[in-house]
Amino acid sequence: MPHVTVKHFPATLTPERAAALSNALTSAVTDAFGCPDTVVSIALQPVPAEAWDEQVYQPEIASNDSLLKQPRY
Predict the structure, then answer these.
(1) What is the pTM (predicted TM-score) of this model?
(2) Is residue 10 helix, strand or coil?
(3) Residue 40's closest CA among 49, 51, 31?
(4) Cα torsion 9, 54, 71, 35: sign
(5) 3-state secondary structure (DSSP) of residue 66
(6) pLDDT, tens digit, for every residue of 9-21?
(7) CB-CB neighbours of 29 under 10 Å
(8) Cα 45 off chain centre by
(9) Measured between alpha carbons, how far is 14 from 19 in angstroms, rounded to an integer?
(10) Beta-strand (E) ranges in the chain?
């Protein structure tokens, strides 16, 4: 607890960029939830652009009242 999944268009992250992203997300999560970093897990899930609407936008964004941030696209 907690687990964060980042869904994104396919992109190659260098090990340094992946580590920076992991560190930033871990810091934000531990600050928000007051938990140790040892209990945070993070996954990256690439989603092809042509599948974004069906796999991500419609089921997870379109009618989700619990989003902390709405996209503007």
Answers:
(1) 0.90
(2) coil
(3) 31
(4) negative
(5) coil
(6) 999 999 999 999 9
(7) 20
(8) 8
(9) 8
(10) 3-8, 41-46
In residues, how long is the chain? Answer: 73
Tokens standing for residue 36: 């140790």
CB 50 within 8 A of CB 11: no
Q: Which residues 6+ apart lie within 8 Å of 47 measured at CB?
A: 7, 8, 9, 10, 55, 56
37 and 43 in contact (C-beta within 8 Å)? no
Average pLDDT over residues 37-66: 97
Sign of the Cα torsion 38, 35, 23, 4 reads positive
57: left (phi over 0), alpha (psi -120 to 50) or beta: alpha
With b meaning 16 or more CB within 10 Å and e meaning fewer, what string describes 31-65? eeeeeeeeebebeeeebeeeebeeebbeeeeeeee
3-state secondary structure of 73: coil
